[in-house]
Write the structure tokens for this entry.
Amino acid sequence: MKVLIAQKHWFSLWVMPEWVVERLRSDFPEHHFVYIKDYAEIDREILDAEVFIGWTMRPEQLAAARMLRWVHSPAAAVHTLIFPELVASDVTLTNAREVHAPVVAEHVMALLLALAKRIPDCVHLQQRRSWGQQALWEQQARPREIAGDTLGIVGLGSIGREVARRAKAFGMRVIGTRERPEKPAAHVSAVYGATELPILLAQSDFVVLAAPLISSTRNLMNAATLAHMKPSAYLINVGRGALVDERALAEALRSRSIAGAALDVFDKEPLPVESELWDVPNLLITPHSAGLTEKLWDRHYVLMKENLRRYVAGETLLQIVDKQKGY
């Protein structure tokens, strides 16, 4: 069996370390692993590959890969792989949603606390050597407790569930939306359907976006949906940038329709220097850093090793993507 691994990215952490490939070769010596860092080589190497591990591929590459049976994405989001030809094929698609969930959930709580405690304002005061205790208290959105507040999670997948567990430990009331609201969700007081988003928004003191990017969630938070949020509420996005209408959010923040927001993902990345978001008030920006951890590839390795074992043994793979739904 040939396993083709294609990894190329301008950000070094997203590139698979050589030690991962070497361990997989040692674990499965009877199989052939090809690791390439130049996407131009995919056209040739994918022809006889049975397994492909990579961020994306083109429809014509899929058509040429006559032996391909399984595609694994090291990312949580797989929208770059959900094209009609792959969806219609019998190729199994898996992703790494469980790999990223714990560290992203920690980042959510860091952003939530930073907003609640007005940490960015404190940093600005420090930079000016200003003891701004009174000024901090006189701001429209004062520092606050989060215990007893309501956290609304849009998308109760791997990340959403990890956020719910941590928020519950902080004494927050957690509610959420999901496609099938009848499914139980630990640590969540109420679950609503996707069409009931306004109900969740109206109750929430903090809203976390952790939904997949599909046609129905693109620009999910727009001027109309933002209007359902409390003026004292905060929005946090760690899903995909395109979940948010960035211009509508900027306007909501400038008009103080909501108290603030934190974005870790953006419609265009890296965020252009000319983007208006850099200067929007009460907006905390992190550079898609929610998933950064030195443990990342250790987790990836464990998942890939187990799924390769399952594949060879003919067992059900972990973290299979529903290609029709796109997640």
DSSP finds twelve helices and twelve strands in the chain.
